[in-house]
Amino acid sequence: NPRVSSMSKFFSSRLKQTEPYVPGEQPNETKVIKLNTNENPYPPSPEVQKAIQRAANETLRLYPTPTLQELRQTIAKTYKVHQDQVFIGNGSDEVLAFSFMAFFEPGEAIRFPDITYSFYPVYAKLFNVDYKVVPVREDFSLPIEEFYHAEGGVIFPNPNAPTGRALSLLEVESIVHQNPEKVVIIDEAYIDFGSDTAVQLVNQYENLLVIQTLSKSRSLAGLRVGYAIGDKQLIEGLNRIKNSFNSYTIDRLAIAGAKAAFEDGDYFEEIRAKIIETREQTAKSLDNLGFEVVESKANFLLVSHSQVDAEELYNQLKEQKIYIRYFKKPRIQHYVRITIGKPEEMERLLEAIKKHIPKVT
Ligand code: PMP
Q1: Does residue 91's CB lie within 6 angstroms of at least one atom of ligand 1?
Q2: Does the beta carbon of 221 sit less than 6 angstroms from any atom of ligand 1?
Q3: I need a labelling partner for 322 at 20 to 30 A (CA). Which of 125, 226, 231, 346 fits?
Q4: pLDDT tens, 292-320?
Q5: Quick one: 13-43+266-356 is in which CATH superfamily?
Q6: Ligand 1 pocket residue status of 215, Cβ below 6 Å
Q7: Ligand 1, atom 7, residue with closest C-alpha
Q8: Domain segments of the chain: what residues?
Q9: Is the ipTM here above 0.95?
């Protein structure tokens, strides 16, 4: 059990006070329906594999280019920004960790929602950053005014995780606008599934940092590539952290694969449209079964049912080798989170759920 951890007398007090993040299960069997960690059910673009193969054959002897210039150019072109406005890290988790180190301080509380990505409090504790959680409303929407004038800065995912609820671009902009002296980080891990990216605001706001990932909409969770887009000075801050820590955040295979993924825009559009369509269909089916389905703009749904114990549903499905996510946490302990898979996987899930729901007469 990863939660029962030993504590060495040699650990720093920061480490002692940090309860590490526990990621979702990665079962070793292949014959499971895996709807628990928001991966993409479709393989990456076929171009990715070819590019990685080429890089493996030709360049592994050499260190990567420390500036990651080529991939930064590709990302800059994709988002119509300058390459000096792009930072690349080993998954967006690393970009988030570097951002906490670069922009947030002890003594000035940053704000994030109470129901959100559980890595934020982990980083805050590890890097000694004070924080204040802002409770989301009953319907899981964010009370945006409560993020105005934050002492130390703001971070939140848009769409939020694990709720899937998204803010409009105007709402995001108002939070950025109302914190002119502090960095506002928008974690857009799930932005490509139907909401508007704040990247289009980075040239207007020097305090805005947008973080995205190739793990979800580009099917590359295994490659570990994330990136930040923002004002040149914020990117310079992240580079200073990187260069004080590890000059090579990503390797040559990841660089080649990521570049190929961005260059195959048609494939990206095709699979994200499929996922959005499957999400809408699954939401409808679950609603018909009596579930409360939180409105989602992500590749997952947070759902609950008045006559079904969420943890029991999670366990029952796991016995049938269908993995979903259950969080034993206040406010969401009656919900489960279901990643959107292929239509046939969602059908199998719905069949299994139907058998589990008590017959209402
Ligand atoms: N932010 C959010 C909100 C997430 O849910 C995740 C995925 N667990 C990440 C960031 C990290 O993604 P990655 O490190 O794979 O880029």
Answers
A1: yes
A2: yes
A3: 226
A4: 999 999 999 999 999 999 999 999 999 99
A5: Aspartate Aminotransferase, domain 1 (3.90.1150.10)
A6: yes
A7: 189
A8: 13-43+266-356, 46-264
A9: yes
How far away, in angstroms, is 335 Cα from ligand 1 center? 20
Give per-residue pLDDT as tens, 184-195: 999 999 999 999
Residue 123, C-beta contacts closer than 8 angstroms, at least 6 positions apart: 96, 97, 100, 129
Indicate which atom in ligand 1 lies nearest the CA of residue 213: 16
pTM: 0.96
Q: Which residues pair with 88 in a beta bridge?
A: 227
Amino acid residing at 179: N
- Confirm or reject: Cβ of 161 under 6 Å from ligand 1: yes
**Domain 46-264 part of CATH 3.40.640.10:** yes
Question: First-to-last CA distance in the chain?
Answer: 41
**How far away, in angstroms, is 213 Cα from ligand 1 center?**
7
